[in-house]
Structures are given as C-alpha cells and as structure tokens.
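Progress report, Aim 2. The chain analyzed during this reporting quarter is listed below.
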Amino acid sequence: MSTLGKKLDFYAFKIVVPLLGIALLGALILGYVAFFPNKFTDVGYAPTQPIAYSHKLHAGDLKISCFYCHGNAEKTHKAGIPSTQVCMNCHSVVKRDSPEVQKIIDSFENNKPIEWVRIHQLPDFVHFKHNVHIQKGVSCFDCHGRVDKMEVVRQEKPLSMGWCFECHRIQNELVKSPRLEDAIERATKDEAFLEQLNHNIENYKGTTWVKGHDRRACVIEHCSYCHY
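Predicted structure tokens for the chain:
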C-alpha cells in the first residue's frame, strides 16, 4: 500500500470513525428527547389509574388528611401507596354499590393489590426522604401541587436537581412557616374556621406548625446529601 493510502486509512480510523460515533450518539439523544414518552419527569403527566380515585373529593371536599393514606411519609423516607385495607376502612360501608368501589372490594376479597400507576419517580441514584422534609414543616403541596383540587393526580413540579436547589435556597430564609395541610385538618374540627378557610384558602398563611419544627432548609453543600 502506498504512503498516501496509509495516511488516508490513519485519518479515517482516527478522525472519521470517532466523528461518526459522536454523530450517531447525538442522533440517539435527540431521538430520545423528541420521541420517547418521558413519563417520569414530565410536568403534567397524569396517567389513567385502575380506579378513578378523586383526590379532590377525598382530600379536598372531605378534608381527609394526606397522612391517613400516606402515613409512612411522616415516619420513613417513602410516602408509600395505601393498601386496599386502608380503602376498606371506609368503603366496607361507604358507597359499596359504586362500580369503582366494587373494584376495591374485589381487590380486598381476592387478596390482589390494586396496580396503581406511579406518577412521581426520582432516579435510583437520588435519595429523597419524605419524613425529614415533613418534620421540617414542608407541605405536601410544595412538591405535589394542590392535589386537593385534582380529580386526576398529575405531576406539578419538575423534581429536577435545579428545582430542589432553588427550593432549598428559598426555604433557608423561612422559619416556622406553616403548612396548608394543618389548616385543612384544623378546619375539619372547626366549622367557623372552615368557612374562613374556604373564602381565603389561596392566601391563607396557615396554622402554627409544631414548635421545634423550624422550617429551615439545610444548605446543600455535598453531593452525598442526596446521592449516596
């Protein structure tokens, strides 16, 4: 082979092939972004659930506490999905003739869990602790939006790293900031307060959070806070 041919082979191997590889990788990334249904990070993602459960009815109209169904959120890092037994605590008696409630009864009687479709999901390498945030007075609505107004729950926030950083920067300035859930829970026991809350809920500042639970977010200084 001539010297020129060897040089051409060298350039093809060292330059052209890597460029083609980069171009292919770029095309794959663009295709993923453009066409793949990224349901775990898209704001507005609202999948159809196996049961038409209305958060607006339960958390909004009936003022059932978030922690009645997601009690683990106060105690562990995961909020958890309520078991069928939790639903049956009410629906063993309430609206048993409803077609949607009948699905719950069937699930309970056949010992087959309801296959809820997950909406909010972080990558496996991110460790978010619900109990730490709740004990600091962070509202469920801060991350999940006003679920008490949602017939179908959707993802309201991007849950991205930048979004978390921004929240920590802002909340570090707030101390003893109340949670809307506490106001709603108080309203279930106080009719006068409920009337006041219904007319001013958008601007309501809430009730005093438990003393000692200052809503002061830590400044994130190390990657290991969330990635470990």
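Residues 1-36 form one domain. DSSP finds ten helices and no strands in the chain. These observations will guide the mutagenesis work planned for the next reporting period.
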